[in-house]
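User: Sequence for Non-histone chromosomal MC1 family protein below. Tokens please.
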Amino acid sequence: MAPDSDKRNFALREDGDESSVFSGGTPRQAALKAARRLDPADGEDEADPKEIRLREKGTHKVHIYEAWAWVEEAPDDKPDWMPGDITKGNVSKQGVEHLDEI
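Assistant: Structure tokens for Non-histone chromosomal MC1 family protein:
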């Protein structure tokens, strides 16, 4: 895992508003964290992909992903504190957009 100094911050953009910030060494790591906040489906096959846009803080780059989330049963070797059902997420990169203004 990357040291904290290698982490980058990405703001989730919704209608021009940046409501949440996710960090990760790569844009995909931040997008996976954001995907888990979506309304989860009962299974990955039933999940409805949604577009998420993440602007890298300090830049004018917006990373565009198709993201989806679903609920599945936790693994048998899960720690005691973990619930029986967990939310999983996945993303597919659609491209990068460059903003004129932030």
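The helical segments are 27-35.
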